[in-house]
Specification:
- The chain has helices at about 20-30, 40-50, 55-60, 65-80, 95-105, 120-125, 160-175, 180-185, 200-210, and strands at about 10-15, 35, 85-90, 110-115, 130, 140, 155, 190-195.
- By secondary structure, the chain is of the alpha/beta class.
- The protein has a domain at about 10-120 and about 175-210: Rossmann fold (3-Layer(aba) Sandwich).
- Strands 2-3-1-4-8 form a 5-stranded parallel β-sheet, sandwiched between helices. A 3-stranded antiparallel β-sheet has the order 6-5-7.
- β5 (about 130) and β6 (about 140) form a beta hairpin.
- α1 crosses α9 (about 200-210).
- The longest helix has 15 residues, at about 160-175.
- The protein is globular.
- The mean pLDDT is about 85.
Length: about 210
């Protein structure tokens, strides 16, 4: 490990809406880690490649993007200097194939935090979620009318609909849930109650990482 802590690579697992995005930013602030969000990478790629209708359709329907496509984006991002001291992976791996790709390329996964949240809660969270169109900060409906960081407008993501959310949950159960067993067998999985308020979830994660 090339980190000042007892870990370098942290993976956040959990159903869509479990709070991975919020917790990854808090981890970055607390430990000085870089955050790799596949959602952010894919949305950036979509903006750069507006003619890729297949990518847009898959993202808007909640379907998983091909393992090789996602993995190439993540590997390219990991080469940047901002991740040398450690990183949080949010949204990858989402399949066993992606987990095996990480392992085969020597990408460190020292601890996997599984945010265990109820489906009813995450559906409510996602439907009330608003995103700053400038900096990407996340808010709940009623918290703010504009972004407190950059004064950007708050909007609902195009794929934050009940139909898409339910589709994402089904895909998660079929593909991603298997990863908990995979990482449990490797002895790196830690479970955290994701039904708690954000600050309490963060405190529980900090406790886990502080013991490494």
């Amino acid at each position: 490990m090339n980190s000042a802590f007892g870990f370098k690579g942290v993976v956040l697992l959990g159903v869509p809406g479990a709070g991975k995005g919020s917790q990854s930013r808090l981890l970055a602030d607390r430990f000085g880690l870089g955050v790799i969000s596949t959602g952010d990478l894919l949305r950036k790629r979509q903006q750069e490649d507006v003619g890729n209708l297949r990518l847009k359709a898959d993202m808007n329907s909640g379907q998983l993007i091909s393992d090789s496509f996602v993995f190439d984006l993540v590997l390219a991002e990991l080469k940047k200097s901002e991740y040398q001291n450690g990183y949080v992976l949010d949204g990858v791996p989402r399949t066993l194939e992606q987990a095996e790709m990480l392992a085969s390329h020597g990408v460190a996964v020292d601890v996997v935090i599984y945010l265990d949240a109820s489906p009813e809660l995450v559906v409510a969270r996602i439907l009330s979620r608003r995103i700053c169109c400038t900096c990407g900060a996340v808010y709940n409906v009623g918290e703010h009318s504009i972004c407190s960081r950059c004064d950007g407008a708050l909007v609902r993501r195009e794929d934050d609909t009940e139909e898409v959310v339910m589709g994402r949950l089904n895909v998660y159960r079929e593909k991603t849930e298997l990863l908990t067993t995979y990482y449990e067998r490797k002895g790196v999985l830690r479970r955290v109650d994701g039904n708690q308020p954000i600050s309490q979830v963060a405190a529980a994660i900090f406790d886990v990482l502080g013991c490494l």
